[in-house]
């Protein structure tokens, strides 16, 4: 027997938000949400990105999952206040991209950073004795300067990651690689400039993106609702609400944790 009514998910647009630096926790949450979109057979997905980017591997995994899902579901990305570097890379997984005129985007490039505390350690009388299996095992150690061979190793790593980035942008946006290279030098630009460069498809708000997503999926843009897929909040937060709001402190803590965990890793990250 064929049931005459579509499940309610078939008449809704799935909605996933990517906010803050992209790292392991973000990847896990987004991949779980994308799996839910596929299982519930949503006809479309609106991906809201408000992120300066993050780690290379996590950004790549989200992008790859979006490309796979895009074979079954219409996907539109909406760039918020900032969608830069890894945020751009993730957005390349969408079929259509909408940005605000003033969105900060771009910053296509790679950065790796270590901290050299050698002079400070000397002042306080601290030194390290290192036993290593090879000359580069302690590359980017914070207690000494990089050697020229180490700088070349890291530069080669950065160049390879950068090539992967520009090739993905060129493929997703149907642009020649040399054209992408002309603006993929780490600079940031507005959503309006991104439109002129071919990085996004149109200017508009998240609501504009929702309406276009509905149209792509053959749904009524006036009536189609968003179904936001997000990680459930802890029980006390749900019960007490804003009385436990420590968003500012939480954001600072999350950023500090990201900085510590990502030290020495190649990043697709905009650092203002």
What does this structure look like?
It is a single chain. With 272 residues, the protein is of the alpha/beta class. The chain is 42% helix and 17% strand. Strands 1, 2, 4, 5, 6, 7, 8 and 9 form an 8-stranded mixed β-sheet that branches. Strands 3-10 form a two-stranded antiparallel sheet. Helix 1 (24-39) packs parallel to helix 2 (56-69) and helix 5 packs across helix 6 (177-183). The chain starts with 12 loop residues before the first strand and ends with a strand. Residues 1-5 and 233-246 have low confidence and may be disordered.
Please give the structural blueprint.
Blueprint: E1 13-19, H1 24-39, E2 44-51, E3 53-55, H2 56-69, E4 74-84, H3 86-91, E5 96-99, E6 104-106, H4 118-123, H5 148-173, H6 177-183, E7 188-190, H7 191-197, E8 202-203, H8 206-216, E9 226-228, H9 235-240, H10 247-261, E10 267-269
Parallel strand pairs: 1-2, 1-9, 2-4, 4-5, 4-6, 5-8
Antiparallel strand pairs: 3-10, 6-7
């Amino acid at each position: 027997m064929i049931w005459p009514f579509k499940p309610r998910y078939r008449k809704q647009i799935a909605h996933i938000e990517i906010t803050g630096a992209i790292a392991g926790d973000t990847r896990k949450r987004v991949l779980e949400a994308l799996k839910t979109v596929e299982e519930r057979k949503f006809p479309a997905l609106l991906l809201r990105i408000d992120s300066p980017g993050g780690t290379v591997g996590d950004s790549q995994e989200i992008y790859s999952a979006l490309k796979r899902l895009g074979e079954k579901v219409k996907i539109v990305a909406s760039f918020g206040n900032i969608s830069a570097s890894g945020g751009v890379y993730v957005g390349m997984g969408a079929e259509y991209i909408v940005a605000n005129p003033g969105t900060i985007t771009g910053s296509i490039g790679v950065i790796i950073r270590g901290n050299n505390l050698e002079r400070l350690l000397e002042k306080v009388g601290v030194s390290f004795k290192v036993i290593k299996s090879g000359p580069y095992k302690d590359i980017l150690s914070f207690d000494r300067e990089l050697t020229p061979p180490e700088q070349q190793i890291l530069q080669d790593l950065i160049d390879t990651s950068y090539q992967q980035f520009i090739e993905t942008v060129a493929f997703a946006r149907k642009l020649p690689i040399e054209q992408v290279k002309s603006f993929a030098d780490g600079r940031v630009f507005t959503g309006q400039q991104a439109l002129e460069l071919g990085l996004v498809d149109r200017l508009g708000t998240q609501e504009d993106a929702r309406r276009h997503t509905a149209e792509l999926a053959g749904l009524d843009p006036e009536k189609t609702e968003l179904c936001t897929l997000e990680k459930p909040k802890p029980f006390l937060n749900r019960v007490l609400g804003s009385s436990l709001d420590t968003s500012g402190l939480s954001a600072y803590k999350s950023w500090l944790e990201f900085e510590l965990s990502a030290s020495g890793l190649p990043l697709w990250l905009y650092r203002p």
